[in-house]
């Protein structure tokens, strides 16, 4: 029997999606959310067993509802949230602790200690990243330091430390394969993007045993099998979206607007570009192709909207309110410092806290929500300005994907702010489509796009952005002064 279908498992911060594809089309999509745990202020965790249970439930549902056999599927591909890390016992198959999510700031003190020791330049040159709790390495160090079971099992062959993709591969293959790809490995602070291997000096710095880490395979390799279905194509979600958007030429930019926001510029093989305001990262490593990218990480995108709908106004129609609020004339100069989990690129202040500025007695919820939405695109503008400077490459257009891109008034405002064409696709599953290309590279996706052009209000919008940026810079200057830095 011909294998006519593909499956893609898209495991993200907020939930898991399972997509069924046929002939370049998404036939079905199934979703299942998982809980977010906040055991302490600034800590964020997921339950790995809940995530795996959700994966199993979605797989069962897909086969039942579509009357399919395992033999009908040509490949299963995986794309995933990137820096989230977990440890598990290979013997029992049980997690030793919850997954520590990319948003988690529990390793902030360790990061500050490493920076004070002068380690940032070494790590930046080797990894293209900076020392920040966002990345996995200091989270792994926390596991070794705080959990005796992790330290005891290290180096014995019984311990597995990996990102979510490696956990899913291990579970899907019933423990036969413990592997990852470079797009995930490069987010750990342990992977050298120059030598394309786990780095011995960095492993020593973080006191991590090489035996505890997964094998690194090319993204389009076979990663074992699930019920006879080959697992082909594994890639971190933001990099997969870059591939899915077709961003292959130097200077091509895609922006994924999900829980957080990843702004990524294709730089082909120029992996020596360095600037601490943004990251240099592996875009992909395939058997016959490799590429690198500049990236700006924005911590709060859709997450800021979710927070507003939960903490400021209990509402079930937040998407509709977000669409409407930008269509009204701006009445007040209210600004939002979007540091719900600290500030990412290009400011990088993980101890910064969120705040509204400019509130008066007449300020409404709509003005506050508008300020939240504006802060998302203001951060994107700040990142793109740095990318143009570092790459010496002007950006003429940007490709947008992710759930927040459904807000068309926001996309129009972004085009005006950037003074660039903004191209928004009608589907949001570009991470899934990108990783599916690794298994079926000949498939051509037919995806409608909507294009937004700058309006004549560019100077007005840019002026508002400048006020916001000065506010952020002043806030960071004040907080540095108070901390004695």
Automatic annotation (TrEMBL):
<keyword id="KW-0547">Nucleotide-binding</keyword>
<dbReference type="GO" id="GO:0019563">
    <property type="term" value="P:glycerol catabolic process"/>
</dbReference>
<dbReference type="InterPro" id="IPR000577">
    <property type="entry name" value="Carb_kinase_FGGY"/>
</dbReference>
<comment type="similarity">
    <text>Belongs to the FGGY kinase family.</text>
</comment>
<feature type="domain" description="Carbohydrate kinase FGGY N-terminal">
    <location>
        <begin position="5"/>
        <end position="244"/>
    </location>
</feature>
<dbReference type="InterPro" id="IPR018484">
    <property type="entry name" value="FGGY_N"/>
</dbReference>
<dbReference type="InterPro" id="IPR043129">
    <property type="entry name" value="ATPase_NBD"/>
</dbReference>
<dbReference type="GO" id="GO:0005829">
    <property type="term" value="C:cytosol"/>
</dbReference>
<dbReference type="InterPro" id="IPR018485">
    <property type="entry name" value="FGGY_C"/>
</dbReference>
<dbReference type="GO" id="GO:0005524">
    <property type="term" value="F:ATP binding"/>
</dbReference>
<dbReference type="Pfam" id="PF00370">
    <property type="entry name" value="FGGY_N"/>
</dbReference>
<keyword id="KW-0808">Transferase</keyword>
<keyword id="KW-0418">Kinase</keyword>
<protein>
    <recommendedName>
        <fullName>ATP:glycerol 3-phosphotransferase</fullName>
    </recommendedName>
</protein>
<dbReference type="Pfam" id="PF02782">
    <property type="entry name" value="FGGY_C"/>
</dbReference>
<dbReference type="InterPro" id="IPR018483">
    <property type="entry name" value="Carb_kinase_FGGY_CS"/>
</dbReference>
<dbReference type="GO" id="GO:0004370">
    <property type="term" value="F:glycerol kinase activity"/>
</dbReference>
<feature type="domain" description="Carbohydrate kinase FGGY C-terminal">
    <location>
        <begin position="254"/>
        <end position="439"/>
    </location>
</feature>
<keyword id="KW-0067">ATP-binding</keyword>
